[in-house]
Design goal:
The protein has 272 residues and is α/β, with parallel strands linked by helices. 40% of the residues lie in helices and 25% in strands. The strands form three sheets. A five-stranded mixed beta sheet has the order 3-2-1-6-7, sandwiched between helices. A five-stranded mixed beta sheet has the order 10-9-8-11-12, with helices on both faces. The chain has a two-stranded antiparallel sheet with strand order 4-5. Helix 5 packs across helix 7. The chain is globular, with a radius of gyration of 18 Å.
């Protein structure tokens, strides 16, 4: 089992770094670039993995983990990088990147974006494995549900033995809400992000979450999996873990703030 108290405390510090710039310890800064379907995120850690600063921006320049608007993606990453460098007072020169599991063919494009923004890419990961840099589990399944995809990494004795990914994520929840309420996508997205309305919308999007659970169940061995660990922005939806646990029959856990787990884990893997 993961140490949820440790993880929640750490992720709270990462979230604070969106508004507060912390003084880094040591000389080296580690950067994680997460190009997501719904958000682009840059997280900066010091060399001891203490959070320093974080910037994010909602974006519509990727589809299911694949860059579809290269100039738009590059522009956003440059802007986030410039804001962070101004906040920290130092140049950011190196970063790690990650792709949804199973989309490794997009790694070159992601790397071109990072390099175009002035980074040297020192590590390339799959997103669930990056998240496990935070969770540090030995055995179980890490499931990263982002805006476009549901990806998972199966871990045995601390090693990733299999990764899977399918295109179902938070965007699909928003589309269902837009259709149900007969409202524009952007308005439906705002409803989805409103924690006060999660109890109201959960029955509406339940079928999509059950599909996510089916993806997980289909790609794991229930006799070898004792726990499912969730992360990713879509997992912020209150009650999502209960539906996945019920559909898979496997205990399912998420931290209080699952959104920034993967970007912070990516940053942890940034090499000198």
């Amino acid at each position: 089992m993961i140490d949820l108290e440790r993880i929640n405390s750490y992720m709270d510090r990462v979230a604070q770094s969106e508004m507060t710039t912390f003084i880094p310890e040591g000389q080296r800064l580690k950067v994680g670039l997460d190009l997501g379907t719904a958000y682009i995120v840059l997280v900066v850690l010091d060399e001891f993995n203490n959070p320093v600063a974080c910037e994010k921006q909602a974006a519509n320049v990727l589809r299911d983990g694949i860059v579809v608007d290269f100039p738009g993606t590059l522009r956003i990453v440059k802007q986030l990088k410039a804001r962070l460098e101004e906040r920290i007072g130092r140049d950011l020169t190196h970063c790690a990147i990650a792709m949804p599991a199973g989309t490794e063919s997009s790694a070159r494009t992601h790397q071109y974006v990072a390099e175009g923004a002035g980074f040297e890419v020192t590590a390339i990961l799959d997103e669930p494995s990056a998240a496990n840099s935070i969770y540090q589990i030995e055995n179980g399944v890490v499931v990263d549900i982002g805006g476009g995809t549901t990806g998972l990494a199966v871990l045995e004795n601390g090693q990733v033995t299999a990764i899977y990914d399918e295109p179902t994520g938070g965007t699909h929840l928003t589309l269902v809400l837009a259709g149900n309420y007969r409202i524009p996508f952007a308005q439906a997205e705002s409803i989805k992000l409103d924690f006060a309305r999660h109890r109201e919308i959960l029955p509406i999007v339940k079928a999509v979450i059950e599909k996510m659970a089916t993806i997980i169940r289909r790609n794991i061995d229930p006799f070898k999996t004792d726990t499912i660990y969730l992360c990713g922005g879509t997992c912020c939806l209150t009650g999502i873990e209960a539906i996945i646990e019920r559909e898979t029959g496997i205990p399912t856990i998420k931290p209080e703030n699952p959104f920034l787990v993967t970007p912070a884990g990516i940053a942890m893997n940034c090499l000198p």
